Amino acid sequence: MTTLPPKTAKKLGLVIDLDTCVGCHACVISCKGWNTENYGAPLSDQDAYGTPSGTFLNRVHSYEVQPPEAAPAQLVHFPKSCLHCDDAPCVTVCPTGASYKRAEDGIVLVNETACIGCGLCAWACPYGAREMDAAAKVMKKCTLCVDRIYNENLPEEDRQPACVRTCPAGARHFGDLGDPDSAVSQLAAARGGFDLMPELGTAPVNKYLPPRPKDQLDHPQTAEQIDILAPYLAPVANSPKGFLGWLDKTLERL
Amino acid sequence: MHPAPSLIAFTTLSGLGFGLLAWLGLGLPSVTGVTAFVFFTIAYVLAAGGLLASALHLGHPERAWRAFSQWRSSWLSREGCASVAALLVMAAYGAALVFWGQRIAWLGWLGAALSLCTVFCTAMIYAQLKTVPRWHTPLTPALLLSLCLAGGALLAGQISLAWPLLIAAAVLQLLAWHHGDRAFARSGTTLGTATGLGARGQLRAFEPPHTGTNYLLREMAFEVGRKHATKLRGIALTLGYAMPVLLILLPGAHVTAALAVLSHIAGILASRWLFFAQAEHVVGLYYGRHTPRT
Amino acid sequence: MTHPRPHLDTSPKVSDEVRKTTCYMCACRCGINVHLKDGKVAYIEGNRDHPVNKGVLCAKGSAGIMQVNAPSRLRAPLKRTGPRGSGQFAEISWDEALELATSWLRPLRETAPEKLAFFTGRDQSQSFTGLWAQQFGTPNFAAHGGFCSVNMAAAGIYTMGGAFWEFGQPDWDHTKLFILFGVAEDHDSNPIKMGLGKIKARGARVIGVNPIRTGYNAVADDWVGITPGTDGLLILSLVHELLRAGKIDLDYLARYTNAPVLLDTDTGLFLRDADGKPLVIDRNTGLPAAFDQKSIHPDLGAIHTVDGKTHRPVFHTLAERYLDPQYAPEAVAERCGLSPNKIKRLAAEIARVAFDEAISLPIAWTDFRGERHSHMTGRPVAFHAMRGISAHANGFQTARALHMLQILLGTVETPGGFRFKPPYPKPAEAHPRPHFKTTPGQPLDGPHLGYPQGPADLCLDDNGQPARIDKAFTWDNPLSAHGLMHMVISNAHAGDPYKIDTLFLYMANMAWNSSMNTAGVMQMLTDTDASGDYVIPHIIYSDAYSSEMTAYADLILPDTTYLERHDCISLLDRPISEADAAADAIRWPVITPDRDVRGFQSVLIDLAHRLKFPAFTNADGGAKYQDYADYIVTHERKPGIGPLAGWRGDGSQTGRGAPNPEQLQRYIDNGGFFVSHIPETASYYKPWNMAYQDWAVGMGLMDQPTPYLFQLYVEPLRQFQRAAEGHGAHQPPEHLRPQIRERLDPLPIWYASADSDCAEYPVHALTQRPMAMYHSWGSQNAWLRQIHGHNPLYIPTKLWQQHGFQDGDWARVTSPHSSITVPVAHMAALNENTVWTWNAIGKRKGAWALKPDAPEATKGFLLNHLIAELLPPKGDGLRWSNSDPITGQAAWFDLRVRIERTAPPTEAHPSFPPLTSPVGTGPKDPK
Ligand SMILES: Nc1nc2c(c(=O)[nH]1)N[C@H]1C(S)=C(S)[C@@H](COP(=O)(O)OP(=O)(O)OC[C@H]3O[C@@H](n4cnc5c(=O)[nH]c(N)nc54)[C@H](O)[C@@H]3O)O[C@H]1N2
Ligand SMILES: Nc1nc2c(c(=O)[nH]1)N[C@H]1C(S)=C(S)[C@@H](COP(=O)(O)OP(=O)(O)OC[C@H]3O[C@@H](n4cnc5c(=O)[nH]c(N)nc54)[C@H](O)[C@@H]3O)O[C@H]1N2
Ligand code: SF4
Ligand code: SF4
Ligand code: SF4
Ligand code: SF4
Ligand code: SF4
Ligand SMILES: [Mo]
């Protein structure tokens, strides 16, 4: 495990729909709650009632996009946790072997009892998916809820990551991205799921679904689109009197 | 990246220490007995002291032994292995010099090679990181090795080697800065690729995920003002390279040599501070750093 | 040298026990599974079986554990020791606390019950607290609706028997176009997110109308970045376009609305038959008929001439009004901050989906005129709106306009449109009217709040003076159906209409984020009269936490947290129903408090007994209810009808039935809630669908079928207008006549909301709720406050550049009332004349057990300092209130400001002296 497994049997991961995420931070907090009680050391908080700083495994950013034409600016909420990269640089840099990628499902984990807290894996991760816990002094990261997804103490339907289970908008999907027939693979294929920072060669498992095209009311693609909608507003009459005339005629026909 | 004083001191001093060890291994200067003892002590204090200090700064120093295990993939692990090997070999070699006045040349060469190897590994820890484009270049090991050799030569009193090496290191330093200042832009990683939203238009980080700070921001989103950096570069160049060259080329005694060493160390500390402080990690993009403002 | 793979337990035990109850961090009231380890809360997740959230949970809900662990929790009853506002208290026993309260309250009840003002904030037990106040005998009771969303509620009730929000919901499963007006978060928090997710998954379209594009509006496919306060104009312009194009559902209008009802041409009131039923012309006979007569077909177009007078149907007046060119897109666009083309395309898109994509469900049903329909037809355009249109001084009429738009399209209670949630629909006439008659020592003559049908229903005493301390139901704001909590403190301070003795508040942070003119309120609460006594002599307050408000109380009754008490989310009140089902729920003590606190409702029951309220006292003088749990089970509103509808009688009865001592246990066994599904044939067209009417009678939601028509034309408004025109026995004061004539129009109108044309204050300033924070109380939550620890003022690109702002800058923001200095940030997806910030992030130093250097107290700020309860003087010698002239709804979003760049101060201004914390400060590194 000093190196990455040449191939993993499954590629478990998340598909995150940027068209649907409303930026509510529910996934952030349910992750914090679950992982404070479960896998490894609790996610600690420092100066919690002063100027706080704490460990979170999942965070929601937001970005503003100004399209080139005079179209209105857009806002995209952007949740981010570990992408469980196929070619995970965080694993290979780890001097202790504490960081590893599981051959059976591709989940990237930190064995906290072996972690020396050197921080190098966090430097190697392009995505900011690793945070050193200031109390436990070990590296924390998203476990893909490995202690939920196989957990026989949970009802079958709950064997999915805490963040996925809680997401009110249904913007997070969990499954095997190694299996082209899985629901998540199909979804990613249908919606043009993409990788973050593909140029870095990390081959993330998690996929992001792009926001759908926006603001059709503002920039008609073509002139005929106006024509498509225009007939809907063709006046039946131009004056109230005319309108009442139309009304009478129409009521006759009802 | 956060310019942690411990890291700056460790890399600077251990680099010097291993540089000195390397020259000692090559028999430059060829010393024995008490003189050898003094040289080796200085080298070990710098090299091993730096290592130890950094180990003590780990979250879990009691587990530091585990760091020797992953030499097959991890440059940090390799650094650990190489450094221990170098220190052990050089200890045997030095003992022979100090106690028996014997120079076991092949052992010296091996030790020198391991010492340089250690510095190379240290450099590769940074150079391997695609996440920090400024570091991700052969210039990083080249610069660190050249500094190790130049500083080592300075400490070893090898004037004729030291000044050309210092000039070479200065050139590499300038190249590294020149390259570094463009590296992030050239890397092709932008907020656009980081979010996959680049093709949709002009992108800007809006609200951060948290209003306070966190590990990532403290560790990786350090920013230095351009003015401040330029000033420090001047200081680094003057103290780290120009002054030592001037001082050792002046006719003089140990005073100037000692001054040259001190000046060099001060300059390299400044340069090393910049090495970290100016290194932009791509994760900063997610937090709206390193993006041209509109 | 490789390590063995670490052993990993992928099936760890999750918890010792799961207890299912109801979340409290907002009015959405989701079901939660509380995981316990060693008797302590370990983890909270959503309850999958729950009708509201179906397993999902928002950030606040998931962070509930930190609400229970919060160091700001009060520990025991507190009696003030220092001056009011200092925060100095001594802990006392409950006995002492209750005796003290009783010693203040008893003499009031016996002599002048109106001298108690009991206002209960964001109360989830209003049917109970209302009963308590009624039993006390004071007319001065309301909850927070007046400063929240009464415009939305009242406009909905008067127009169609229910509003958006908790009264109904979009038909998430069928809608093809969802248009959202002025919503950042809403009460229906998780369901809206789930609904948006459903719509998105189906690839249907979402349009957001909002000056700010965040959250729901960010995921909207189209964004209409309207100028605040002008939605009414936009909507009436859409109506104009749709009418002009004939894109309205004539059949629906004729059958289910008062569009065909005949207006008396002299009075503008309905023509009625001898039984008082509004008349329509039956197309079958051409003769007038009562609207609900069997098998008639009301005629939308027919006019009725009697005695040479021509009476026309509502629809004629309506069409004439909105076809007027003043509503043409070209005429309104600039004012709305939109282009005429965009308005037209929006109208066209609505028309396209409503009429080209109409859907039809093969569900047969019978309407109230006895006609059988084989299908349910829907025009799948759904609307939803909340405070963005509600919290303006033209909000009532704007909300009315939106309801009119939906009704013209035929999308209310039809598939793909908007659907009511039981006990709604419930028209205004089916609600009580307001009551205010006090008798010392006796209960009030009826419920406080209601829906006036005309001037006779106002709460005015024999001299025409306001009977209530908040002046609700007066000529100033006749339809103030939720009261005016935001006026209580200033009126009590002014002794206008009279002085009170005791202000009793529950769950409202009135010294901070729920008040306008925050500094002024703090002043009023601490003001003394000539003899050095406080102007408001006694203040009792129940909070669970050390909020800003606690510092202003004389006596604090510390509440438990939501996991430690019984609560009831009742069909008599604001239940958790869905469009397909009636549902109610409970909370129960899933953990035991570790301190000397008591559930507030149980404390009220204790007080009720001490004060010997008839409804709380047995014939033998003993307490009728032990505590709130007992009340929930045994109280009967009417025989057989109590707070909870599930498992009544022997446990097999629903809705109606005798009290069942096992009831709470049955709720607990069922996960804390009860659901009764509406039969499929009753699922749409509820106001007119006999299957629904019968089902609702069975459930105890009403006593007999009450089909009714949607009120495009609201006759009670006309009644008020007529009074202002000089008709009738009840006459408004002269200075209010013009306002009533103009604003209380029976058909929706638009007028510029108060204050909005000042050249000196050109910028609109708004707040939005952050999804991960609940008003002031998220800040004591160690997790949530890391997400929103301070708030910048967001500034649109145009203003940003115009003022030369840079990142990290601060601005001075000035309104006609006051000025604040705050950090700014740039935002492009924002109406170009609007600035905004997150609501209620700023905190006062010393509150919430936060350290004085907490970012909430140094950089966080409130816009409330800029908003006054009174408008600036207009030069007519009067002070007009900053509220809707119809309902009294606080007009938070009418705020206008000017901004200027300023040197960064050390902290946000204004800053107030720190409070002494009665609970100390939270620990540095918890756990
Ligand atoms: N600028 C601006 N101001 C606004 C608004 C806005 O949009 N902009 N919105 C307005 C609206 S709609 C509202 S509803 C108000 C809300 O304003 P408030 O009703 O004041 O809201 P909260 O901050 O939730 O305060 C409620 C109080 O209840 C206490 N509390 C919490 N849990 C419990 C409990 O279990 N028991 C008891 N007894 N107390 C508890 C809290 O500690 C807090 O002190 O704000 C209004 N103010
Ligand atoms: N997370 C969370 N949830 C909450 C609460 C909370 O504090 N936190 N509070 C609860 C309470 S008490 C309430 S009342 C509800 C309120 O829920 P919302 O109605 O969503 O209230 P606000 O957050 O005030 O959002 C008002 C929205 O209206 C927009 N707006 C303002 N003026 C105009 C206008 O003129 N036209 C249009 N079209 N839009 C406008 C604002 O930009 C903002 O998006 O939320 C409830 N739910
Ligand atoms: S996202 Fe970062 S931490 Fe996760 S596998 Fe990829 S590189 Fe490693
Ligand atoms: S911090 Fe821990 S997991 Fe990360 S590289 Fe160091 S030892 Fe490995
Ligand atoms: S999968 Fe689990 S650990 Fe990872 S972000 Fe989601 S909740 Fe957190
Ligand atoms: S819970 Fe879902 S909608 Fe909310 S921020 Fe996370 S991914 Fe987005
Ligand atoms: S929406 Fe969130 S805070 Fe409100 S009740 Fe549901 S889980 Fe609780
Ligand atoms: Mo509210």
Automatic annotation (TrEMBL), chain A:
**Does this UniProt record's set of keywords contain Transferase?**
no
Superkingdom in the source lineage: Bacteria
Which residue range or ranges hold the 4Fe-4S ferredoxin-type domain? 12-42, 73-104, 106-135
> Which keywords label this protein?
4Fe-4S, Iron, Iron-sulfur, Metal-binding
Q: Does the UniProt entry include the keyword 4Fe-4S?
A: yes
Concerning InterPro entries, the annotation shows:
4Fe4S_Fe-S-bd, 4Fe4S_Fe_S_CS, ET_IronSulfur_Cluster-Binding
User: PROSITE patterns per the record?
Assistant: 4FE4S_FER_1, 4FE4S_FER_2
SUPFAM superfamilies annotated for this entry? Answer: 4Fe-4S ferredoxins (SSF54862)
Q: Enumerate the Pfam families for this protein.
A: Fer4_11, Fer4_4
Q: Which PANTHER family does UniProt cross-reference here?
A: PROTEIN NRFC, PROTEIN NRFC HOMOLOG
The protein here is known as Fe-S-cluster-containing dehydrogenase component
Q: Which organism is it from?
A: Thalassovita taeanensis
List the lineage, top down.
Bacteria, Pseudomonadati, Pseudomonadota, Alphaproteobacteria, Rhodobacterales
Automatic annotation (TrEMBL), chain B:
**Keywords, in A-Z order:** Membrane, Transmembrane, Transmembrane helix
- Write one Gene Ontology MF term: dimethyl sulfoxide reductase activity
Q: Where are the transmembrane segments?
A: 7-28, 34-59, 80-100, 106-127, 139-155, 161-177, 232-250, 256-275
A single cellular component GO annotation: dimethyl sulfoxide reductase complex
Would the keyword Iron turn up in this protein's UniProt record? no
Q: List GO BP terms, alphabetically.
A: anaerobic electron transport chain
Q: Which domain of life is it from?
A: Bacteria
Q: In its UniProt entry, what is this protein called?
A: DMSO reductase anchor subunit
Automatic annotation (TrEMBL), chain C:
Protein localization: Cell envelope
Question: Which SUPFAM superfamilies is this protein grouped with?
Answer: ADC-like (SSF50692), Formate dehydrogenase/DMSO reductase, domains 1-3 (SSF53706)
- Read off the SMART domains from this record: Molybdop_Fe4S4 (SM00926)
Q: What is its main location?
A: other
GO molecular function per UniProt: 4 iron, 4 sulfur cluster binding; metal ion binding; oxidoreductase activity
Q: Which UniProt keywords apply?
A: 4Fe-4S, Iron, Iron-sulfur, Metal-binding, Oxidoreductase
Residue ranges of the 4Fe-4S Mo/W bis-MGD-type domain?
16-72
- Which cofactors does this gene product need? [4Fe-4S] cluster
Q: Which domain of life is it from?
A: Bacteria
PANTHER family cross-referenced by the UniProt entry: DMSO REDUCTASE CHAIN A, TUNGSTEN-CONTAINING FORMYLMETHANOFURAN DEHYDROGENASE 2 SUBUNIT B
Q: Which family does it belong to?
A: Belongs to the prokaryotic molybdopterin-containing oxidoreductase family.
The name on file for this protein is: Anaerobic selenocysteine-containing dehydrogenase
